[in-house]
Every structure is written in C-alpha cells, then in structure tokens.
Design goal:
By secondary structure, the chain is an alpha/beta fold. It folds into two domains: about 110 residues, NIF3 (NGG1p interacting factor 3)-like (Udp-n-acetylmuramoylalanyl-d-glutamate--2,6- Diaminopimelate Ligase, Chain: A, domain 1, 3-Layer(aba) Sandwich); about 120 residues, NIF3 (NGG1p interacting factor 3)-like (Udp-n-acetylmuramoylalanyl-d-glutamate--2,6- Diaminopimelate Ligase, Chain: A, domain 1, 3-Layer(aba) Sandwich), CATH 3.40.1390. The mean pLDDT is about 95. Helix 2 crosses helix 11. Helix 4 links the parallel strand 5 and strand 6. About 40% of the residues are buried. The chain has a six-stranded mixed beta sheet with strand order 7-8-10-11-12-9. A five-stranded mixed beta sheet has the order 2-6-5-4-13, sandwiched between helices. It has eleven helices and 13 strands.
Length: about 280
C-alpha cells in the first residue's frame, strides 16, 4: 500500500519533463524537416533524457546568458539561433562558442535550438510579427508545400494606414531604435504587408509581385533599396528586432503542453548591433 510520501513523490515524478519531451513538442509544431540545408536545428548540447528543472528562452545564447541560466538553476536553454552551425574540431576555450559548450557540459545545461524550421512553420516567426500588427487574411509568401501552410514569409492585410503612420507603428511595435526605410517609395497608404523575420531581403520582389504595399524584414542592403524602392515600401527593422518574438512562440508551445514547466525569458538578452 502506497504511503502519502510515495504518492507525493509519484506526483512530482509525473510532472517532471525531459529535454527530449520539450524537443519533441517544439518539433511537432515546427518539424526539423522544414529547416534550411545550412541550418542546425535540434539539441546542440546535453542529455536528451535529463529532467528539466527550468528552461531559459533567448534569441542567441551568449556566455552571459549561460551564466544567467546557471544562476537561475535552469538546466535547459532554448534558443532561436543555433549555437553550433558547423562541427567543432576542438573545444579549447579559444572562442565564445567553445567556452559556452564546455561550460554548459560542466554545469549539465542542455542547449536546444529551433531556427529556420520555426521560421517556416505555420504560426511561426513571421506569423507572430503579423499578429503583433493585427494583420488579417494571412498567407505564406514563399510556400514549401502545395497546401501553402509552411514556408518563408507572410503576406496579409492591414487597416489602411498612411505610410508615415504605418512606419511609426512598426517602429514602436518592434522596439526599433533606428528604422531604415525606402524614402523614394510612392505609396501613400499601406493596406497589404509582407513580413519575414531575420534576413528577408530575397523576398522583396516576391512581396511586390504579390501586391504588397510594404515589406518588413531585416538585413536589407543599400542596393535592395535602390533596386526595389520604387516598387514597394521597404522597412528594415533589424534582424534582432524582427526575431525576438521567437521566445514568445517557444513559451506558448511549451506552456500549452507542459503548463507546470518553469520558463524564464532571459534578462541578459541584448541586441549585438548598437545604434548611437
């Protein structure tokens, strides 16, 4: 016959979630098959069978963020950008990546990343950007399947808004300190918008051809502005600013499946690109 203590311990054990459980939950939402060929989505460091005490969510893992995870007793860090893109031939502490890997192993901290698969999933990064702007009638801009339910970029409708008001709203919504936009664009009112988290300049022409009045993305080159600025309003909000919402997606996915799992948004997260 079970004692009260046995019952309490059984309840605690049932609530515990493994690293592999978190990984599987994220990949059910954003399958690894959606990642681009250059990417490295998945568990980067750590034991998949380790029980998760708490998880720290961030865009990029840095040495400061790993220290924060250790201090907060988080033994799982979930990132959007992978720590390791290419194989490591040595771990000597010479680079930040090597130091993070070594320290994570020493402190038994797992590191998991979901990158371009999260970008391409329905309700992924670009969708989240669209929701932040209260857009409707969303469609994938560059579909990966025949149903048009996965792929890069989103296009949708917005309440008709004067161009400068639209740009100010974008700047405020995404916390942009210095928004770059195409000054020569002739559009006066914005009704249809394309979005792509991260580096989406390759979609500018697709967005214009799809009837978008504007495209919001990051990492736009000077010559993209000169080549396409007369066709569409280009708003470069920055890579970091466009993808920071990935942490909200992680939180929502995990809390829906494991509401008792302890999650933190990193307090150490900072934009590596400064503006003065």
């Amino acid at each position: 016959m079970s004692t009260p203590l046995d019952i309490v311990e059984a309840i605690k054990a049932k609530k515990m979630v493994k690293v592999s459980d978190i990984a599987r939950t994220i990949e059910e939402f954003a399958p690894k098959s959606l990642q681009e060929s250059y990417d490295n989505t998945g568990l980067q460091v750590g034991n998949p069978d380790m029980q998760v005490t708490a998880a720290l969510l961030c865009l990029d893992i840095t040495e400061e963020i790993l220290d924060e995870a250790i201090q907060r007793q988080c033994n799982l860090v979930i990132t959007h950008h992978p720590l390791i893109f290419r194989g490591l031939k040595e771990i000597t502490g010479r680079t930040a990546i090597e130091r993070i890997v070594a320290k994570a192993i020493r402190h038994d901290v797992a590191i998991y990343s979901a990158h371009t698969n999260l970008d391409s999933a329905w309700d992924g990064v670009s969708h989240e950007m669209a929701h932040m702007l209260n857009m409707t009638d969303l469609q994938v801009l560059e579909p990966k399947n025949s149903e048009g339910t996965t792929g890069i970029g989103i296009i949708g409708n917005l309440r008709p808004t004067p161009k400068l008001e639209f740009l100010r709203k974008v700047k405020e919504t995404f916390g942009v300190k210095a928004l770059k936009y195409s000054v020569q664009s002739p559009q006066l009112v914005v009704k249809r918008v394309a979005l792509c988290g991260g580096s989406g300049a390759s979609l500018i022409l697709d967005a214009a051809n799809a009837g978008a009045d504007a495209i919001i993305t990051g990492d736009v080159k000077y010559h993209d502005f000169t080549a396409y600025g007369l066709d569409i309003i280009i708003a470069d909000i920055g890579h970091y600013e466009s993808e920071l919402c990935a942490c909200k997606i992680f939180s929502r996915i995990i809390r829906d499946k494991y509401p008792d799992c302890l999650l933190y948004f990193s307090d150490s997260e900072t934009n590596p690109v400064g503006v003065i």
